[in-house]
Amino acid sequence: MQTPPLLLLQLLCFVVLGQSLTSPQDISALKAFKSSIKPNSIPPWSCLASWDFTTDPCAFPRRTHFTCGLTCSSTRITQLTLDPAGYSGQLTPLISQLTQLVILDISDNNFFGPIPPSVSSLTSLHTLTLRSNSFSGSVPDSVTKLNNLDSLDLSHNSLSGSLPKTTYSMSSLRRLDLSYNKITGSLPKLPYNLLELAMKNNYLSGSITKSSFDGLTRLEVIELSENSFTGTLQSWFFLLPGIQQVNLSNNSLTRVDVSKPVKGNSDLVAVDLGFNKIEGELPVNFADHPLLSSLSMRYNRLRGSIPLVFSQKKYLRRLFLDGNFLIGKPPAGFFSGVGFISGSLGDNCLQGCPGSSQLCSPSQKAYSVCKQAYGGKPRS
């Protein structure tokens, strides 16, 4: 393969004239980036240890210096991807000089302090991954100006405060993960091209409103477990056209309304609403979602019987309804051996749940508990 003439000329200039291939502003930014990291946190075998500015960052081949962590296109740095070496320091605001960055990934290290608002200058970014560090402060509003961003992962940090109200303006964003932080407030209006939304284990609160999800026709995965959402999960939620997986377990929801899918069409595969405060009967319309294979509503406050139709679902393979106040006899189809189903119907008020079946473990509630829950003798 022949070297392109322009690159050959650049290499010749570098060797003969001692000129730098890499843009001076990129070199300046890289120096600032390395100097903001504590020297004693840079192992001798790591990528950053090989960053020696007596040579050019984009020179090739990289036999001894800048051996990893960087990708260049012509004279500009387009990718900064650190190894998980335990680097400790702050992310310098001068990172903004790397204006041609497409990927910035410094995950699984020990960066701390705020995310600099100057990241808004990285307008070419497609991927921003700061996962598993110790960043604190709020998610800066300036992040929402990154209109080319496809993936934003700030999970496993110590970010706090509410989400920017302009989050919806990130028109190219397809994957958003802010899980395991300390983010408060309610969900803002979300970017309409999202495919995956993950905000597990935060302090989000309030009800889940249609306005937050308005226009999200492509959203497939919603992971909002371990927050403090309250109120009713309304019927529009499970009618989002692209929805496949939902996890809203470990919240404080009190009711869930489920409608039949439009024209019987639904891609919904898995739903976890366990460990909430949901009252009422088991929503029978879940059974009308043809591809539903996993349903958990364990440890809520459900009453009434288990609809027969759940034992007739072709694809249902996991059903967790334990820890409620369900009564009557469970459908015989669960125990017929025709289609294997795992899960639990234990810790309810059911009658005739075969002790030989793993579905009936743990044992049912004491009769006195069930009687008190129903204000008298539970009826089938």
UniProtKB/TrEMBL annotation:
Q: Which domain of life is it from?
A: Eukaryota
Q: What is this protein called?
A: Leucine-rich repeat-containing N-terminal plant-type domain-containing protein
Q: Kindly indicate whether the keyword ATP-binding belongs to this entry.
A: no
Q: Which SUPFAM superfamilies match?
A: L domain-like (SSF52058)
**Compartments, as annotated in UniProt:** Membrane
- Name the InterPro entries on file: Leu-rich_rpt, LRR_dom_sf, LRR_N_plant-typ, RLP29
Q: Check the record and name the Pfam families matching this protein.
A: LRR_1, LRR_8, LRRNT_2
Stretches assigned to the Leucine-rich repeat-containing N-terminal plant-type domain: 24-60
| Region forming the signal peptide | 1-18
Instruction: Name the PANTHER family for this protein.
Output: LEUCINE-RICH REPEAT (LRR) FAMILY PROTEIN (PTHR48009), LRR RECEPTOR-LIKE SERINE_THREONINE-PROTEIN KINASE GSO1 (PTHR48009:SF9)
Q: Which GO terms describe its cellular component?
A: membrane
Q: What is its main location?
A: membrane
Species of origin reads: Dipteronia dyeriana
- For this UniProt record, give its keywords in alphabetical order, as a comma-separated list: Leucine-rich repeat, Membrane, Repeat, Signal
